[in-house]
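Researcher: Going back to the complex we discussed earlier. I've cleaned up the inputs and rechecked each line, so this should be the final set. Can you rerun the prediction on the complete assembly and write out the structure?
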Amino acid sequence: METRDISTQPVILKETNTDFEVRSLDTICLNESHIQHPWWHSLKYLLAGLLFGIVLVKSQVISWFRIQEMFRLQSFHMYGVIGSAVVTGIISIWLIKKFKVKTIYGEPIELHPKEFNKGQIYGGLLFGAGWALTGACPGPLYALIGTGATVIIVTLLSAIAGTWVYGRLREKLPH
Amino acid sequence: MHFLEWIKQPWPWYVAGPLIGLTVPLLLIIGNKSFGISSSLRHVCAACFPGNIPFFKYNWKKETWNLFFAGGVLLGGAIATIWLSNGQPVIVNPKLVNELQRYGVHNYSDLVPVDLFNWPSLLTIRGLILMVAGGFLVGFGTRYAGGCTSGHAIMGLSNLQWPSLIATCCFMIGGFITANLILPVVMHL
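Model: Rerun complete. Updated structure for the full complex:
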């Protein structure tokens, strides 16, 4: 990573990239910030997650019933939600790029391209199967536990186990 | 209609979708974070049982924001259920109601069908497949694909990444096949 001119910021971490594995094959959900903060700064992500969780519940996209309707083409709801979310996201990112919007800490916003590998096909199909069975992707798993569906804790633990087994077998899987 | 009554109803797609989409710029602006949730499962592995697996040997502490976000989603689920719900059953397409009736699903009071997802059902083959095998596929598949609905379908597509489009199409193909061909078999178990 190149270093940036963020001299107005008090604490700067020069990144020594030890996370090659994370970055090379999985650029999803990464911390692009180079500034170090005390832990309580992370509470803003708790708040962001909280708002996101409320929308997931109120729109019922975490409902097993809505997922079954989606995969049977019996309702437009899920397509409407995902479609309008993507359109909003595209416009947002376009605006961020156009106006070179910075973070609240004054850092330039970084976006990373995703590299293609066959995992997106095999893994995608497997995840789709899991989505149809459980009616939930990872975000909804957390939200469902919050709604009081305690048995989904088992599903979440199983998802963590699935992630672990993937990590274990990764060298042997086609990518 | 009173505002609180209105907000307690299920929200239509054109309200919920844009709000979900706004999570993308929100996370970028408050801290340069790319939206995605399935990685939290990986961070849990890295933090709790990395074994000697290279895939889990990275500085997960740098990614704790993602765990805070996941915790927030859980709390948000609780808040929406306790304070922002009108307690009405989920309204489902009659065709689906008809189909599910054959499998003994009659209860639409919760977002999850409580006839299928409950603690005693964990001891049945059907329950094991739906809750345990399904969960395993979600964790395995999302990591193999490098993201889930949030990371690929929303964040990736918002950034016009074609690998994310491929992943999203595969999510849908896997879901269509499973829901229409495999699930009916599972439901009869």
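Model: Worth noting: Chain A has a mean pLDDT of 86.
Researcher: Good, that matches what I expected from the previous run.
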